[in-house]
């Protein structure tokens, strides 16, 4: 059977959530994980899950689950979801689209009086973004057993505030252990593509076959802070010049490695940060991603060699500290097929693609079979108030998700 | 006659002031202008001036003057001084050495019962460093009529706090107009070299013949903030890559222009500053200095062309905003000669050199004849807790200053 979700309700819900932590005068979100805005979005989502008749539970990491029983209580659960947190100046679709599409699925089951064979759960994962507390995808990682609960709790933000204290403060440190409470059959996650490929091909939805691997690290250069007017050029050990050399190479390395390789420096801090002083210490991040894990390792090796060469040129000390490394993921064929069949059946033009971004599905795929649905991201923009997906494209992706999920959950009875 | 300053008193005073705003466990200062530490240093200096029998006045910019009458009340005044404020992590010599050497001069006159022909004044100029409020050398600039009092008052620090409000808060907004209250004959300023030339030549003191010109500006690149994993390299407009290109050229341009040219990027800020986002906007400073003003202009022209080229490569918008431009200064021969004669007479090995740093003397030289004395800076280090000048070298420079000042002020009577 085909499931017809309620487009108007779904769009209304997307607009409601976009008001919580919304940017002034811009269509975007400032809803950092465990902020007051995150609490407000969570309260709103909890109420919506209860209204939909779901059995709500919150685990020790603040992950929020809403469970709907199936005809076969012994059957593995089908899990759907994403995250409600945002970057400091993020868009309104990234994350929330997948959470509210999951909600729309169970509400439609309720409307239609459908009992699925398998239990169905929807989830809002805590701290997917990793913007305030590193690493990203923290709480799906703890849930899947990849990250340690104790370490996650002790993580601090830039102001030295601990994750666990903020979780407690906003009232979302739950009692349920942060680990699978049931046997899970499969996981589907809808997310915006955050890249240009669907739009450029004119496709409606993306059938995601896996996720690239990546490695994030921080390079520190130490030179000599000194007066910018009185220190001759041949006496300088300028840490920022070393950083500039490496950042130029971070731009170049991907083009020497692979078609899908990307490399980025997103954060840079130069000390002491005075117009009149040669920078004595500079720290900056480097990150590389590729579907092939060996290529990521090679990119990191190359950037380290570039750092060593830059340090030699400028007389600096240098170090590289790995912040996070995640291997690439290949999704399960049966879940990919469920998404592909749903898209084909609903008449959506689609392409298969590998996600360039990490998602909670990265971790969940180690617990059960998984796949993802991508919606179009206009101009490939995300993590920005310019992020945009038309309601038509949101609907197409949510419709695909719902029908793929119904396929996996099976229909036991309908009204 | 030769004047013999009190070495022990002078060293004690240097150590006393170094306790005010001193860094924890390091031999350095955090005494930003108009901070509580600056107030404390000012109170201490005011008391020392009163103890020395000086007539103390504070002007509208917080500049502190201590005046000692001469035999000829109509004669032009000889002014000596420097500044007590520091960089956020500065050394203990930069600035204070020149202020306390001036104090030591008048105390020695008092000890010796010397009446000079000319009146003598010592001064502590407000906000020489320009680290908290730009521009640097702000209050000697207002005093000399180069900068506007109204604009200086409205200047804000990074927290948006106005200069005038902080001046008021620490109790150093004086009533005396910030302009010359007397006819000034000459100005001498002792300062650490902040460069390696004296030490490398094995000289004791520097006879400063002028000050390089410089221009400070800020370059802004605007690109497109976007997800670092999903945005292919050929779709990026990375503002930080543009900045890295230019910073590399800031390092290179001086070597193509002149032996004394220097170029520096001291401050860089990348937005939004997330490990996971391609930087959409980057602002960074560029500064060039040279004894020849045309060379500074050429350096700035070149860096603008580099910015345009980097913007073209990366698809960025760019702008250059001039923050400060100061022309080079040639000091007066008679003042240079007074310093040279004092150094020679006391048996100090010296060299003539052009200051690579701006000093309050830059502005004062537009009011009266001026020159400077440099002390050795070990390793050329300054604006850092590693800044160091031995007490022998401090003494040699203060001794030279005192005897040059006595030469300019003339002896009318002694006990």
UniProtKB/TrEMBL annotation, chains A, B:
<dbReference type="InterPro" id="IPR010158">
    <property type="entry name" value="Amidase_Cbmase"/>
</dbReference>
<dbReference type="Pfam" id="PF07687">
    <property type="entry name" value="M20_dimer"/>
</dbReference>
<dbReference type="GO" id="GO:0016787">
    <property type="term" value="F:hydrolase activity"/>
</dbReference>
<protein>
    <submittedName>
        <fullName>Zn-dependent hydrolase</fullName>
    </submittedName>
</protein>
<keyword id="KW-0378">Hydrolase</keyword>
<dbReference type="InterPro" id="IPR011650">
    <property type="entry name" value="Peptidase_M20_dimer"/>
</dbReference>
<dbReference type="InterPro" id="IPR036264">
    <property type="entry name" value="Bact_exopeptidase_dim_dom"/>
</dbReference>
<dbReference type="Pfam" id="PF01546">
    <property type="entry name" value="Peptidase_M20"/>
</dbReference>
<feature type="domain" description="Peptidase M20 dimerisation">
    <location>
        <begin position="210"/>
        <end position="312"/>
    </location>
</feature>
<dbReference type="InterPro" id="IPR002933">
    <property type="entry name" value="Peptidase_M20"/>
</dbReference>
């Amino acid at each position: 059977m085909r499931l017809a979700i309620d487009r108007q309700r779904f769009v209304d819900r997307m607009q409601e959530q976009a008001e919580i932590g919304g940017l002034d005068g811009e269509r975007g979100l400032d809803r950092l994980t465990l902020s007051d805005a995150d609490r407000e979005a969570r309260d709103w989502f909890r109420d919506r899950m209860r209204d939909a008749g779901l059995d709500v539970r919150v685990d020790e990491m603040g992950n929020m689950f809403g469970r709907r029983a199936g005809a076969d209580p012994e059957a593995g659960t089908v899990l759907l979801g994403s995250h409600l947190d945002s970057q400091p100046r993020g868009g309104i679709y990234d994350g929330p689209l997948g959470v509210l599409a999951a909600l729309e699925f169970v509400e439609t089951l309720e409307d239609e009086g459908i009992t699925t064979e398998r239990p169905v759960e929807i989830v809002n994962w805590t701290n997917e973004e990793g913007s305030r507390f590193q690493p990203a995808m923290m709480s799906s990682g703890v849930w899947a057993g990849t990250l340690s609960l104790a370490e996650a709790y002790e993580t601090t933000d830039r102001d030295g505030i601990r994750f666990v204290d903020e979780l407690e403060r906003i009232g979302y440190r739950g009692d349920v252990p942060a680990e699978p409470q049931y046997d899970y059959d499969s996981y589907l996650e809808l997310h915006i593509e955050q890249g240009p490929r669907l739009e450029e091909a004119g496709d409606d939805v993306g059938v995601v076959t896996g996720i690239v691997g990546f490695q994030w690290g921080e390079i520190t250069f130490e030179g000599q802070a000194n007066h910018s007017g009185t220190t001759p050029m041949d006496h300088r050990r300028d840490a920022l010049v070393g950083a500039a050399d490496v950042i130029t190479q971070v731009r170049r390395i991907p083009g020497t490695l692979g078609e899908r390789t990307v490399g980025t420096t997103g954060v840079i801090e130069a000390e002491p940060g005075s117009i009149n002083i040669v920078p004595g210490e500079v720290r900056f991040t480097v990150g590389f991603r590729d579907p092939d894990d060996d290529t990521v390792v090679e990119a990191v090796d190359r950037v380290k060699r570039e750092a060593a060469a830059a340090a030699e040129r400028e007389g600096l000390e240098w170090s590289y500290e790995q912040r996070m490394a995640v291997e690439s993921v290949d999704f399960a064929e049966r879940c990919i097929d469920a998404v592909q069949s749903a898209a084909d059946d609903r008449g959506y033009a689609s392409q298969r693609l590998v996600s360039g971004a990490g998602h909670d599905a990265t971790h969940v795929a180690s617990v059960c079979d998984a796949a993802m649905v991508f919606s179009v991201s206009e101009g490939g923009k995300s993590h920005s108030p310019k992020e945009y997906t038309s309601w038509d494209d949101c609907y197409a992706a949510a419709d695909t998700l719902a029908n793929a999920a119904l396929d996996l959950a099976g229909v036991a009875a309908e009204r």
